[in-house]
Amino acid sequence: MIAVPGKEFSILATEVTQELYKSVMGENPSNFKEEKNLPVEQVSWYDAVYFCNKLSDMFGLTPVYAVDGEPDVEKWGYAPHKKEKITGTVSQNKNADGYRLPAVAEWQYAAKGGQDYKYSGSDNLDEVGWYGGNSGKKTHPVAQKAPNG
Question: Strand, helix or coil at 111?
Answer without folding.
Answer: helix
